[in-house]
């Protein structure tokens, strides 16, 4: 067995080994003794049914001790057993029916250091006779029925270092309830009925290092709530229904290392509040309804080592430059987010120590190569259990330069395209693929409908990955096209593709369509916005209007209709020899189309087909004849000058052809001799093709598109 001096503060064994050939055996013995429970009988007169032993014990400062312990747990007793051994250091009375403790029942236990009265039936703090206990360090009162903590509730316990009051029914704590607990290190107030947090509670707790106050229905953390806790190292604010953290709520926590906001109602990262905690190392934001991790949400947190963003039901995207300058971050956990479909290629900037990236169990179709390149120290990554689209965006997984270890590679499978479904991603022949691919908008992050009430501010998110990077825009139910950075008072679209509608009304109800397009193609997704259970449909007649008819093109337009899903335009000729029907898919938000490459002096029939969100369709048709081909003359001054110049050119060539160049001489200045120009008889045939006038929106005049001059030599 390892001697007492061989144990460190956390209980690990450091047995000195002097003989090399005994080193392995002694090491095994050392490990075995530290994992065993060091319990020996305590030979005293023990109360009936209780157990008296010498057990290992760690002080609140994690110092190992062996303590005389009386264990009377789970005996269903209603009073403290009589005649406890006077040398008792730890008294365990958990899970009984005790409702009151008289001072005389415990005041003779002068060496008592830990008292566990949890899971009993105490309802009043004055039911504890806890005076004259100078050595008491730990007091467990959790899972009782305490409802209030008045002033001076624990003033006689000056050396107390741990106080557990969690899982009671505490509704009110007086400002001076903890007066006298200047040495308290750990305070558990979690899972009570508190509605507010009073900063005055903590002004008498200068030594506090760990505070657990989660599980209370507190909506807001106010400014300076924890200012007095300059030595606090760990703060747990989990499960509190927190909707907001004020910018200065965490002021004063200069030594805080661990912070948990687990299971709250935060809709945005409290980034300004986090900037007040310069030494933060571990941050837990799991299980909050955040929709986006926005630009600069985590910035200049110089000592942050681990960040958790898991189990967020509404998280859709991690935007560009969301994490910036986190020089000590080594692990990022972003898992089990069912709508997370997009991580911007430049989401991470200056994360030089990032080693582990956990992205499993999300809705990611791909992870861009640029994301990996921004993490120079990355050693392992987990992207399994995602609907991975095995196309050009994720080609990096089979790169010879890629030395990153995949966690659970057997579960890292392709979901699309169909011919690669269920195929291991490392077995996909990405080198045979093109380096360009279509945009893909994830259907998991894009609901088919959204029910809201008027007056709400709503955000609709649209993201897509592709090569080349796609452009994203929105189309409203009325056909209004909204590009990124556009804003008109009611609608706003940001650079990432999120459309915001400010204080929605019933007039904004309808079908909204997002389009992501690049040079390869496009992808669209639509969402039905229902306001106050209302969703309008257009009752107007569909009419196709001829705006302009020319020799080789016809311009048509139509009035935008509400909640259009798709539009197609077809046209064909009445001429049997040209019996070919053409079809054009009209992009959402387009209400005019120029039909080109037509034949002159030909009758055409055009039809517009529109499908609506209520599964109805409308068709409107129109016919027109293109103009007959003929020479057209420019009316502008530039056109007249051009014709004059051509006439002079033709006349000059004719004169040269008739009279030759014999009268013209060219003298070389370098040689000083005359060189006659050789004469030749020639003729010029000038051809003027038909001037083609194409439709130019907003311009009524015609413009010359082509002119050809052809010269033909003739024998003399």
From TrEMBL:
Transmembrane segments: 24-42, 640-661
Gene Ontology CC annotation, any one: plasma membrane
UniProtKB keywords: Disulfide bond, Glycoprotein, Leucine-rich repeat, Membrane, Repeat, Signal, Transmembrane, Transmembrane helix
Disulfide bond keyword on record: yes
Membrane topology: Single-pass membrane protein
Protein's UniProt keywords contain Metal-binding: no
PANTHER family to which the protein is assigned, alphabetical: ANTIGEN BSP, PUTATIVE-RELATED, LEUCINE-RICH REPEAT-CONTAINING PROTEIN 15-LIKE
Stated name of the protein: Leucine-rich repeat neuronal protein 2
Provenance organism: Notechis scutatus (mainland tiger snake)
The organism's taxonomic lineage, starting at the top: Eukaryota, Metazoa, Chordata, Craniata, Vertebrata
Encoding gene, per UniProt annotation: LRRN2
